[in-house]
Batch of 2 targets.
Target 1
Amino acid sequence: MANALSLEKVLRNRARRRFGLLLLKRLGEALPTVLGIMVLNFLLLNSAPGNAVDALVGIMGASDPEFVARMTAQFGLDRSMPERLAIYIGNLFTFNLGNSYYFNRPVADLIFERLGATLLLMLSSIGLAVVVGVTLGITSARYFNTLLDRVIGLIALLLYAMPVFWVGLMLIILFSVKLEWFPMGGASTIGADNGPFYAAVDVLRHLALPMITLSLYFIATYTRLMRASMLETLHKDYIRTARAKGVPERAIAYRHALRNALLPVVTVIGVQMGALLGGSVIVETVFGWPGLGRLAYESVVQRDFNVLLGILFMSSIVVLTVNLLIDLVYAKLDPRIEI
């Protein structure tokens, strides 16, 4: 008994050391990746025509050259590109994201105010997509080459082909304008103060349509991917053995085959985080959802590149963090995999 406990302790300590080494390895890989992303983003954005001063002049209608020169010097836009890049990278290492030209506020404050709304939208959308997509994929594989399989395949194809902005507009027309079941936009009802429970319900009502809109494309992807992975897994030798023992088909699908069939889906979730962030820009703009996607759109319109660079920096951190979590889940699903 004592030897068994000692062995268990040794294995637990070894797992902790492995996890610590993994974190150090991933952090070592993440730092140069984030730095490279931000340098590339800075060069691309600052090479584009127009800047914050041009946007301000456009809002004002007209301005004299002295005002333009003064604002250009105040924003630091009169410096050379290498000098501005060096200042930006130096500020980045101190987590100073600068100030917004348009909002006249620290970029970090603007981002953290809206980060929660974007994470809520992203996590709920990806959660809904995984649950529905995996369920439809398993069902399609279990009833392979039947009418149900063809119907699910057709639905997945339609969802994959429909543009996100069009889906959002159609949902607004149907459920907000015609049926009046859900609000047309925003994250909460202005002026409503009925306690925490009703506030949570109000947020969920506002979240429903954006969440469904953003998740439909990924539901289609995960359905097709899960179907293919499940069909491959159901032909493995250990599945045939389970069938020979008389295990019910439902138990075979959900208890024996699901864990291995999920591996490709888990991999794609990590890869598609960037696409999810890109989709949130469209969805948040259509529904007026106060997240980072809508802030990014406003920053592009106003040429407020400091805010846009801050959003890109935070997005890269989120994507790298999710990919680290995906690696851990991948290793949990298949202990043979070395991460």
Target 2
Amino acid sequence: MSQTLTSSLVLAGEWFLSSGIQEAAGGVARYYLAGPRKNARVSTEITGYAVSALVYLFDQTGDQRYLDAALRAARFLVDSAWDSSLSVFPFEHSVNGDLPRRLAYFFDSGIIVRGLLALWRANRNDSLLAAAVACGESMIRDFLRNGPVDPILELPSRNPLPHAGTWSRNPGCYQLKSALAWHDLCDVTGEKRFLDAYEKVLAQSLLTQAAFLPGETDRNLVMDRLHAYLYFLEGLLPCYQRTECRAVVRSGLATAAQLLRELAPAFERSDVCAQLVRIRLFADALGAADLDRAAAQEEVERIRAYQIEDSDPPSRGGFWFGRKEGCLLPYVNPVSTAFGFQGLEMWRQWGAGEFRASRHELI
């Protein structure tokens, strides 16, 4: 492996800067649809992911353009998307289409907080920290009431939607990735209430995680749940050295790798491949599970196959969302791209002896 930055990271970085996936106001679209050549609506969650990705790109390259783009995205979140009267981030916010039903998601909120904290670590802008704290507090107040996390609130009432339908509308272990925001806020502020909230979701997640997979009979839906389960393994990062959590990480990695290979001929998500590689590297570095190099190398090749290298500017450098029945799906996805280039870059770092298992870097 090269001792320099991967070409994947450079290409993906230029896609984030130049493709138009980040709109003029700073928000980032959920995806670019290649057929009609247009962006989907701007998403607060995806903008939060983009802030984390752009800060990571800045950290790896020193290129100020990434930090500037991250700040534009963060200012959009704090100044435009945040509903100060309700103290929530609504689901989507855009001028490029009719707005959907007014909802707020727990998962989205945690991703946004982690993005704001990533940028705060880079520039120490106190307004970003204040926004992250305010959102973290609202997550405790509104989503963590008497039992498991309520995934979705209806606005403006802030009443929880009934738990029904797909996994994203129900409580589940995957919410632990978003609860990482509380752990990060505790690290910064020293406020124990944030750590207590994380530990509460951790306990619930450990009790329920074994039943999360496969969870469906439809193989396509199982692949989506696999993506969500890997969020759970990411959310465990602060606890990889706890005996119970180490055992869950080892068994979870084995289950996830087996399911990926069983399901891939019908439906494969590129982000699942990247999540697996990243978790393998963290688990190995933190002593939770030895690295299966052969399996990781195979997953790296799967990731590489999804990056777009043609000359179409809105697509070049981005990653396709996935493949069904051998056919690429026509969505160039910011999260797939962020997870993909980070997985490849972390794999390069591991090969060069440079990988550092900092959970704050995990997009």
